Every structure is written in C-alpha cells, then in structure tokens.
Queue: 2 jobs
Job 1
Amino acid sequence: MGTYDYKNVKVEIRDGIAWVILNRPEKRNAMSPKLHFEMDDALERLEFDDEAKVIVITGAGGNFSAGQDLKEFFRELDTNPSARRKAAQAANRWRWERLYNYDKPTIAMIHGYCVGGAFMQLLATDFAVAAEDATFSLSEVNWGILPGALVAKVVADAVLPRHALYYACLGEPFDGKEAARIGMVNFAVPLAKLEQATTELAHKLMKKSPNTLRATKQAVRHVRNMDFGQAYDYLMEKSKAIKLGDREDSYNTGLRQFLDEKSYKPTYEPFRLRGDKAGASAEKK
Ligand code: ACO
C-alpha cells in the first residue's frame, strides 16, 4: 500500500475496507477544487491497491458534504474559466466516471448534511447507507441554480419522477428514513449503528467473487439504457466474459460445493472463496 497523504481527504484502509473521507469538517466538507483533485487522485490509486477491496465514501466531523464550495468552487472561479473547467473536470471525473465505473464495490455512508453537489457521489456509488437523522437537501434552487453537473440526471434516474421534482424544485430537506423510503439510499439506521452497518455490508460484499460482483454491477447499470434485444445479447456475452479470468472459477466451484460437497446453498450465502480457510480446505479435496 502506498501512503495517501492529502490535506482535504483522509484515506484509512482497515481490514479490506478503504474509508475515503472528505476532510474539511470546518466547512462541512464543502468540495473545493483542491478537494476534487485529491479525491480524483485517491480513487485512481485505490482502484489498483490490492489492500482496498471495498471503498466507503464518507465525510469527517459528522457530515457527509455540504456540496460544492460556494466560495472556492463557484465565486472565486467565476472569472477564471480555465481554472473552473479544470476543477469541474476533476469533480466530474471522481464523482461520476470513476465511481460509476469503479472496479470495486463502493458504498456511500451518509451522516449529518448531504447537500447539492454531494448527491453526485451519493448516487454514483453502488450502495448507500444513511443515519436516520441525516439531512439531505437539493438546495440548488435556493441559490438561483439548478442541480447541475449530473445531479438532476442521477436524481431523476434514482427515484420516481414525483420525488425528484418535489425535492429538486422545493429544496426541502429530508431525513435518512425518507431517503430510504424513496430509494435514494439502501437503508437507514440509527447514527450509533451507522459505521457498524456499513462495515457489515462491506464484509458481505467481500465474500463474493470480485469478478462476478464487478460484472453484475456493470450489467445492472448498463441494461437500464438498452432495449430488450440489446440487453439479452449483452447479458449473454457478459455471462461468458465473467468466466474468463475468474480466479475463483466461481461457476464450477459453486456447482461443486452445492451438488457434490453439499456444503452451501446459493440462495443464502456465497460459495467459499479460495482465500477463506473452509474454501481452501475444500479446494484440496
Ligand atoms: N460552500 C462554502 N462554504 C460552506 C458551505 C458551502 N457549500 N457549506 C458550509 N460552508 C461553510 C460556512 O460558510 C461556514 O464557514 P465559516 O466558518 O468560515 O463562516 C462553515 O462552513 C460552517 O457552516 P455553518 O453554516 O456555520 O454550519 P451549520 O452546521 O450551521 O450549517 C449547512 C451547515 C446547513 C450545511 C450550511 O452551512 C449550509 O446551508 N451550507 C450551504 C449548503 C449548500 O447549499 N450547498 C449546495 C451548494 S450548490 C452545489 O453544490 C451545486
């Protein structure tokens, strides 16, 4: 593992989980250009860091993020179009291109405020867990702007049109329970249990074959924009592609453990990966 030495971002890798923490607590983790450059760099490197199996995006000091920095990202760059473009490119690269297509599973862990531009990383991650008392707000309408970059798009894709219109047009805050109800996050838990619930989800994901997981998340994302014929063809080819380079030989291992060894039931649990002890001893048989 290299060192991840940044000013506006903290990276802590523990037990396979890379906790990637927006770190401007005094500004409620508002996203400045420097923070975007550091996040972009961190995520690029973590994708190839073998110690990081699952990525959790969260914020320091009890908040997820207060969105774009209204001073450093907006006002100070209003008269500097090339610096704005550079910052916007980095912002969109990590919050969208990288996270949406990330090779490893990603989870957003939301506590405190999640506002405006922070919805990009919230919705680009594969999973999201919120504290019940977190505060979400698409506040852009209150600044005379709309949910730009891709915020309006990701919100419109994630929830029913009435919810998207209501919260984008009113800027009204909602809590973690409401975010779960409308499908903005997977589930909400009391704040005291947030880290534990996120860790449990990460551990469940780590038990799956990384190759199968990666292909499955790509498939679920990409079929949204395909018609039935395209989706059928794509999924057939993707199924074949999973087997190529699958270090776990998941298909044959799963069949053997279920049919011959009677050692697991796929409805409830993943087959044992080579790395885990029970799996390794089964491999030798
Ligand atoms: N941009 C720049 N600075 C910010 C931002 C932001 N988005 N959010 C908070 N800050 C700064 C404040 O200016 C303040 O700085 P100061 O200590 O130098 O005065 C500091 O962070 C703390 O903010 P407070 O407002 O004092 O903290 P509080 O906990 O009371 O409120 C809240 C937090 C609700 C998030 C509030 O700061 C707020 O409404 N911020 C604006 C959020 C927003 O609308 N973001 C969307 C921006 S548009 C976009 O993302 C596309």
Note: The beta strands are 9-14, 17-22, 54-59, 106-110, 113-115, 127-131, 135-137, 174-175, 187-189.
Job 2
Amino acid sequence: MSDAESSDTARGVELDANDAEGDTDGTYTGSREKRREDAALLTGRAEYTDDHEPPGTVSLAFVRSEHGHATIEGIDTSAAEAMDGVLGVYTWGDIEASTSPGRLPLSGLEGEIPAHPVLATDRVRYHGQPVAAVVAEDRYRARDGVAAVDVEYEPLEAVVDPQEAATDTNVPQIFEGAPDNVATSAELGDADATDDAFEAADRTVEIDLTNNRLIPSALEPRAAVAEFDPDDGFTVTMTSQSPHGHRRKLAHTLGVREGEIRVVSPHVGGGFGHKGHHHPGEAMAAWCARDLERSVKWTATRSENYLEGAHGRDHRTTAALAVDDDGTIRGLSAETYANVGGYGLGSGASMPARYGRLLAGQYAIDAIHCETHTVFTNTAPIHSYRGAGRPEAIYVTERLVDVAADELEMDPAELRRRNLIPSDAFPYETPVGATYDSGDYESAMEKGLEAIEYDDLRDRSGTTWDSSGKEVENGEMNDGRLRGVGIANYVESTGGGFESGLVRVLPDGDVEVYAGTHSHGQGHETTYAQLVADALSLPLGRIHVSEGDTEAIPTGTGTFGSRSTIVGGNAVVTSAETVLSKARRIAAAELEVDPGRVTYDDGAFTVSGTDGPEAVEAGARGDETVSFAAVARAAYSRGLPDGLEPGLEATTFYELDGTAYTFGTHACTVAVDPATGDVEIERYLAVDDCGERVNPTIVEGQVHGGVAQGIGQARYEQVAYDEDGTLLTDAMDSYGVPRAADLPPIETDATVTPSPLNALGVKGIGEAGTIAAPPAVVNAVCDALDIAHVDMPLTEERVWRKVSDERGD
Ligand code: MCN
C-alpha cells in the first residue's frame, strides 16, 4: 500500500466516494465530482453566523426610519435606557463623540457627497435607514428597547424614480453636492460616430424600457457577531463574500487599523452580491462591542434585510438601434438613468456608469454610444446584484435586436446570425472599450436553436387567439394559449483583480488549501480541491480547502464578479505548482540525483531511466521511488538540501491580465393565456460557454440558480415604493421570489472555448443565468403576443392589460 493510500484510509471519512468512481480518467478537473460541502449543509452540521454565540453575547437591534425622507427633530432614548436588560442606546451623537468616523466608505463620486452614516445624522434619506441602536441582554429586550425609542420626524417630500429625480425640477434635492440629484454622469463610446451610423442606416428602431428593481433574497439574512478585546482588537464573525474586503471597510468605519480586526465568515447561506457590500449593521455591532466590551450579535430580520440590504438594478433606459434592410446592425445608442438610492454604498453609486461596456453583446457593431446618469432617490442604496450591470446591458441589446427583427420582418435568430462577431475575430475590441478574449458565438447559438427546435417553433409562434380547444394543423391540441419562442445571446465579463491562494503540505502529505475568495453556495471546497489534486497528482481526499478567515491568509479580494475560479483557481494552482517544484528538489535529494532526473506522477517521485546504465552512472540509489508523503515528511526534518528552508507551502497573489468573456445562448418557449395573462414557460434551454469547466455539474448548478433568478426578474420580482418612499415589498409575501413550482425544468448544454488569458483556460459562470434569462423570457412573451415590448416583471395583470390594450378591449 502506498503512503498516499494508507493516509487516506486513516482519514476514513475524508475518502470521497468520488475517488472510487473511476470516472476521472486520472484527472479530477472536468469531472462531475459531488459537492463535498453538501453533507454538512444538508445534515445541519454547517455553522452559520447566527449559530456563533460566545459566552455573554448580547443583542443589537435598530430603530429604523419610518419615512423615505425626513429631518430628525429629536430622539428621546430615556424610556429605552431605563428598561430592564437594556445595556446601551446609541444615536449619531454617540458615534460623533467616539474615535470612529462612523461613515461607510464611498468611492467614485465627483461631488462633495457625505458617505452613509452608521446612524442617521439629522436627516433620513430612505425608509429603513438606521436611526438609533439598542443593545440588550437578548434580542427580545433589544426589540422592546427599539419600540421605546421616540423619534420626532419632520417629513419631507420624497422622490423614488431615478429619471424623475434627475429631470423634474420640482422634486426634492437629496444632497446639496449633487445638483439634479445626479451622483455621476458618464459616457462610453463615440457619440459622433454613432450619430453618423444612425444617419447612414436604412432604419432606426427605438425602445423605452425599465430594468426592474430587485432585492437579493439569500436564504440567510445578513448577520454579525462582534467581539472586542482591548489587547487583541476585534473579531467579527459575519456573513461575508469578501472577509478581507470587510476587514478593510470595517477598519475605515471604525477608524482603526486593519491589523486590529479579524473577520471570520463561516458558512454563508447565499449572498448574490449584497454580502460583499458594507452596511451599517455589521459596523455597529463592532462599534457596540468595543463600547460595551461585550460580544454583540446582530441578525437582520427578513424585513430589515429588505429595507436596508443593498438592492439591485433599477434602470430607466431609452435605446435605439440603427439597422440596414439586409439586417446589418450599424449603431446602438442608449441613455440610462440608474437609481443609486439614498446614499452611495462603496462604489455602488458609480457602478452603473460602466454598464455600457457590454452593450455590444455578441455583435460586431461599428458604433455605440451610451450615456448614463446615476441618480440619488429616497430609496435603499443600490449596489451590485448577481450580474451587476451585465443583465442591464444585455437586456437592452437583446430587446433591441428583437424589435429590429420585427421591424425588418426578419427572423430574430437570422438577424442575430448576420451580426455575430466571427470566431476568428478574437481578441475583439468593441466600440465601448471591452476586449473579448475568445468566443465561438455561432456554435453556441446554433446548438441552442437546434435543441429548442427553433425552426419548428417559429412556424407555430403566436398561433391563435382562439380558445375553443380545437385541433390545429400540426395535430396538437389548441388550448387557446399563444405560443412564443425567445432567444437571448449574452456575454458575461468575468475575473478581475488579484486573488491569493495558499497551498500548505502537512508533514503527513495531506494538503491544506486557503484562498481569499469565499464560497457562499458556489462549491469552491470541491472545485479548488479538484484543481489542486490534479496539480499535485494526489487523491481528492487528501486536499482540504478552507476560506473565510482573514488570519488564514495574508489578504484576498473575495467572491463576486464570477471571478473565483479564474483568479482564485489559478492562484491555488500556481501555489500547488510552486510546492511541487520544491518537493521535487527534496525528492531529488532523498533519491540522491539531480532534480532534472526526477519525474513525478500519481503521488510518487521516480528517477527517470533507473533501469538502465544511465541510472547507475548517475549513482541513483536502489530505492528509486519516493512518495509525496515521504517528501512532505522530509520537508519538515533536518538535513534539507542547501538553499532550501524547511516546510512545504506557497502563497500566490495571482492577477489576471484582462477579462475573460463567458458567452452563450439561452432560449425558451412560452404559452400565454390571453384571458388571464398567465405565462407558462414550457421549455427553458441554456447553452453556456465558460471555457474549460472544472466541474460540469457545479457549472450546471450555477446556471440553474442564475436562470431561476433571471426568471424571477422577468416574471415576478419588483421592488415597490410608494410616493413617500415607503417600501411596500418588505417581506416575502409581498416581494415575488419564485418558488420551485414557479420554475420550468432547466435544460443545459455547453460549448467549450478556452480562455487564452489563463493557464487553466477557464472563465466564470456564476452570473450567466441572471443575464440571459430576462431577455429570453421577455422576447418569447413578446413573440407570443406579437408586440414590441412589455416591461418586466411579466405579472399576470401586466400581461393581461397589455393583451387588452393591443386588442383595444
Ligand atoms: N466553475 C467551474 N468551471 C468554470 C467556471 C466555474 O467548475 N469554468 C465552478 C467554480 O469552480 C465554482 C462555481 O462554478 O465552484 C462558480 O464559479 P465562478 O463562476 O468563478 O463564480 P464565483 O465562485 O466567483 O461566484 C460568484 C458568482 C456571483 S458573482 C454571484 S452573485 C453568485 C454566484 O456566483 N451568487 C451565488 N453563484 C451563487 N450561487 C449560490 N448558491 N449562491 C449565491 O449567492
């Protein structure tokens, strides 16, 4: 039995059933390993932030603004302070009197705009903004304390629509430093060239559309447990997608050095972007822990998460496409008002300014111009939500293409086909500054069209208004519903920034892997292990992956932007390769040969050519094989070769040069009941290309999740504020997150076009579904109803009204 095998047996449970499956063909990368993290998640063994309860933990709760916009005339905390079990009641005055700046970091804005205070100063700018904080012995008494705080408000007029906030001179100004409520204005592309393209083109089509505002609905709400030790500083256990990012932001808000804070993020029950952002709750927990020298826990209720956790999307766009009669797309222009909310959160206020970079989609368009205004309103702050600008851009382009096809009386697939960037044109630079690394758009599209039986469906789309149930020509029962088919081509920019990856070989040959990313549902424990197992040619069971603790690794960036595999994956693989190269030198010393003569395979170092006279000449010892585990042991023993220090580990800071562009085609068929407005998605098909796939099952899972959210946006989800800025959708009974029964089966397929930008050839996949699904669904419904456009979400009422309007009812 080899060392590797005996060690696996000793670990028992670590031996993964997958190791015995034999479907890996010697490699794990590309195989359908089962997710290692699932056993703990499914059996309830996984620990989440709210499970963390250091001795003496007390509870934090917030008094939140009841108004969308108001001045604060006074806050009476005396009744709350007198309550049994209440330990502290805090307002902005307490923060101001402390050593902490108490404001969340803000970047990317031109004007003098105050950053979000952890507690309101003298004015509230959105419903749910934290106004005061109460800490009590338990969460019930903390909430009783909250109810006892008396805040006197002077309500102000509010504005919630970004276009109105920027263009209507009668609406209130939210910040003095932001005239017309505009936080940023940005242009991408060439305005003159685009004007010329529109003048030269045979036709122009236009569309006005809304990209509906969404709330991230992760199963686990945000939470933090902050501990403070005057000698050791803060330990903040929290729901985070980016522990090192949160350490930096907490340091900013608290006014301390990063070294004084340790952030630990245990299992995280979904994030979708908003657990990468820095909000008041977590910062206040830390501030209170220092003030009280007690461990302070804050766990958002669902409604609090909805009121204050960063929302997503919320664009109003006017866009146009210049197209020739033969279908050549010559130009695209778009003007967008993007909602920022009542305060900028981090870089959230400037994020929409970059959304136009993806407006070319998959098409060779000579001229594009995009103007974006990001606008303050009396609504919760907006930041990146799964897709973060890419769904907004692709929705504009893919809707315009369908509207143009209608105008030209051309099949929408054919119009797309005629304008696709050809596969030999990569790297391809678009007129809006994106450089696509690689792509084969036509193959993915044709695969999608064939799988959905597009040509047959086109003959049947928009069939009938008749609800008599009679047989139609192709022999199927006519149930009176209108059939439509929609397709959407997308690109997804993935990667960005640097990531750190540490690989440490233990003296018994097992391998610990740490990364600066933090999985919150994506399955890194499995996929990073696959990558490192292959890089070290070891069984999967020997690799142990951890993330989520700022003390485990010097620094890191985090999990967002579908970047973990391409940046974090390459970081851990590069570290594994460095480790292997050192291990080879140690093995060579053990074998008493030159390192160049040592080969490595399947957990063993061997002297090449040991049978022949060459080996004898080289003086190789009789035991010409040494196991990886034996080398690991040697690495921690005395007598290493000259120049080698003990230990066997490496840390890599991997930075990707460029951006990798995932792409694909999604298609769906719908049946719309014109009598009720009900939309049924009968088939949904996704063909995605994220380069080499580390684990196709996990990739498909990511596509499923993304498509579910994309269908949620297309069909059900819409944040609603009333004109005073009161959030009406503050719980799951009023905010339409789709349930399993609301979703169709999702069929997946793939093409594989490796990225030339990284050695693994991978691209990200985490957001593809949220990008492609909204236009695919809306295109299908518009096809069924034979209409140019209807805004999301396609609720029964909205569709029914649209049908009634079209029929002139
Ligand atoms: N993968 C792969 N091969 C590839 C690409 C990815 O096997 N070529 C695997 C990865 O190794 C990883 C998973 O697919 O296990 C996703 O990888 P990647 O695309 O690199 O994305 P990230 O891990 O960086 O995840 C971020 C992305 C984003 S931005 C959001 S938002 C999001 C998402 O992933 N939120 C999620 N997926 C989510 N999934 C769950 N369950 N919950 C969330 O909150």
Note: Residues 218, 270-273, 386, 520-524, 527, 559-565, 690-695, 698-699, 702, 705, 762-767 surround pterin cytosine dinucleotide (CB under 6 Å).
